[in-house]
Amino acid sequence: MSKVLVVESSVRQEGSVSRQLTAEFVARWQKAHPQDQVTVRDLARDGVPHLDADLLGGWMKPAAEQSAAEQAALVRSNQLTDELLAADVLVLAAPMYNFAIPSTLKSWLDHVLRAGVTFQYTAQGPQGLLQDKRAFILTARGGVYAGGPLDQQEPYLRQALGFIGITDVTFIHAEGLNMGGDAAEQGLAKARKQLEAVA
Ligand SMILES: Cc1cc2nc3c(=O)[nH]c(=O)nc-3n(C[C@H](O)[C@H](O)[C@H](O)COP(=O)(O)O)c2cc1C
């Protein structure tokens, strides 16, 4: 049995293409792997705080020296990191907002890229501590960016996940969703075809 962690980040609960794709991915995955356990972390429904001084203080200090506020910040952050540590498969939904990932997803990454837990510094440079995890990233974009210099989602997410040791990463892009004509339909059909092949 594997554990699958789905991270949703569209602000839309209704009409979201990335949520539709994660739902289709999970349905297919569960059909192929009925024993697997799926956990959903919805960053829009259940907001993740930005990094703040309390959390950084909690990370830096031994437990005995932490204030109540630092301990509370740690509890919340640890939950996010523990979910990722426990997962074998990560499914990230990444709508494109203003050429990048949603700020909530950036905040989630700020919690889970954690020194001493998901990566460590060594004499040879930083080293990812997560092993044997696979990631599937489902993007939804109004325009078309994949493979071009303006795609700031895929390179960033590859770098951030690779930094913590997740290097087996598959992207599925649903593009052209706001371009009118047949573009949305074609973009979605292409993404679904890829999804069928990998999930
Ligand atoms: C605030 C906001 C910013 C957006 N910025 C971009 C953008 O920079 N480039 C783009 O191609 N689409 C952009 N879009 C369009 C979304 O990527 C597109 O609607 C996508 O389907 C959103 O994901 P969702 O359907 O899962 O909510 C933006 C949408 C919103 C709401």
UniProtKB/TrEMBL annotation:
It comes from Geopseudomonas aromaticivorans. It is an enzyme of class 1 (oxidoreductase). InterPro entries: Flavodoxin_fold (IPR003680), FMN-dep_NADH:Q_OxRdtase_AzoR1 (IPR050104), NADH:quinone_OxRdtase_FMN_depd (IPR023048). It comes from the Bacteria. Its EC number is 1.6.5.-, 1.7.1.17. Keywords: Flavoprotein, FMN, NAD, Oxidoreductase. FMN binds at residues 10, 16-18, 96-99. Residues 2-197 form the Flavodoxin-like fold domain. Belongs to the azoreductase type 1 family. PANTHER family: FMN-DEPENDENT NADH-AZOREDUCTASE 1, FMN-DEPENDENT NADH:QUINONE OXIDOREDUCTASE. Binds 1 FMN per subunit. The keyword Transcription does not apply. Pfam families: Flavodoxin_2. The keyword tRNA-binding does not apply. Quinone reductase that provides resistance to thiol-specific stress caused by electrophilic quinones. Also exhibits azoreductase activity. Catalyzes the reductive cleavage of the azo bond in aromatic azo compounds to the corresponding amines. It catalyses: 2 a quinone + NADH + H(+) = 2 a 1,4-benzosemiquinone + NAD(+); N,N-dimethyl-1,4-phenylenediamine + anthranilate + 2 NAD(+) = 2-(4-dimethylaminophenyl)diazenylbenzoate + 2 NADH + 2 H(+). This is FMN dependent NADH:quinone oxidoreductase. Its cofactor is FMN. Homodimer.
